[in-house]
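Lab notebook page, bench 4
Experiment: in silico fold of construct C2
Operator: M.H.
Input chain length: 236 residues
Purpose: comparison with the prior construct
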Amino acid sequence: MTTHTLPNNNRIAPCCVLLALVLSGCGKPAPQPGPEASPAKPVAQASPTPSADEMEAGAAMLRILNVAHRSGGIMLRGECGLLGVTESYRMKTPVTFEPLETALQEISARHQTIYWRESPASGVRLADSDIKARLLRVKLREFRVIEDRGPDAVMAALWRTPEVTAFLRRNHIHFSRRPVTAKKVISPPMIVEMRNATVADILDRIAAGYRFDPPKVWIYRECEDKKETLVDVLMK
């Protein structure tokens, strides 16, 4: 920026003062402080929308498990965007959805950082080796809940436990969206009672406890935003 020196002229000085007052009046007012920011801090970068010949890998995995009538969990690295944690993996269509083993092998072949396993305790687990997923390894001494609403309400109780809240605060981890309490009442109510279990183990139990067809599947995504980690956990 170049600075121009004005001549010291008594006639010009009053005009300059008047001009300065006019310009200052035309400027934008100072921004007012907004409400306190939520724990999730979105970044100003939108995630690309899948094209017509591809679909999100997470959606493909969910459909594969639904077709096979399996419960389980999906853990993926996401991208920090305007809406929080969004999908980062894509699958070119057409996608194979069955049989289960063939479909999951195709996922692993296209995205070699994604592996899967199946066990009676956890159902089918699909995991991305690129994510830390430290929240899922937090161990709770005891977790007990009786809930007659949907899985969002049960997960909300999980996120309020002392072990989880302390871990989130200590490691600067925030949810990109808070669990929404479901209003629909179910009968009989969901009862979850576990000791010395990890968050992932508890999510497995919650998913398996809702005896729907297709069974419930939990989806965990995380992304790094500067010094913070954003996570998103859904039950579908």
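Observations: Confidence is low (pLDDT under 50) at residues 1-47. The CA atoms of residues 68 and 99 lie 7 Å apart.
Next step: discuss at group meeting.
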